[in-house]
Amino acid sequence: MGRATRRVANGCLVLLIVPACLVAYFWYTVWHAGHVNSEREEDALASVLQGAREDGDGTARALAASRSTGTDALTGLVWQHTEAPLITYDSARRAFTATAFRSAVYDEEALLFVHGGPTQVQRCLGFVYTRRADRTWTTKVTVRDDAVCRPSERIRSLTELARTRITNMYAADLTRTGVRQALGPTFDVREVVRKGETATVDVLVHDDVDPPATVEQCYRFTRSIDPDDSEHSATVVAATTC
Length: 242
Fold this sequence. Notes:
The protein is an alpha+beta fold. About 45% of the residues lie in helices and about 30% in strands.
């Protein structure tokens, strides 16, 4: 009876140890994957912020080196360096403010039956460039609420749609009437200038998702109208007014 009792006790102990080990392994795996993913996410976010600061400093240097003093030219310079879809200018503060999402991708660790793989971390960033009295430029980069950048992303999508439509137009149709018909009522076509072998189109792009707080940005599209030019892709740059 004693030997049988010991066998039963050992069997019960095994039955208790095995599930306990499985539970411990499960929780360790969960903890380890979560720890690794948190570190990778933090590193990806740090790279987003570091890249934004470097871009901000680079834009400030470009503004300082530029001989242009016109607001439109400087707005275009900010856009070229930040690719921010929405750029505003405060004449009282002599400051440009650009808002845009920035993102980075990190490889997420798999968790048991949950697949890992590329995962994106994204932040809404505000870039403020201020011109001092001595004509030097300062830059400030801040993390904003995602809601601040959503209108700018819609402006980005609409601008890309307009660029695609202008690219696909026949050269003969690149008139104010023709562009208005091609872009439709979503876009406010302000001016179309044909000069030499290029056409310049000024468009006010609206975001009317949250009226009455309409967000808008001027963009200037330039496209070749040379019949011998097979590359008709339109270039685009932001402007303050149009």
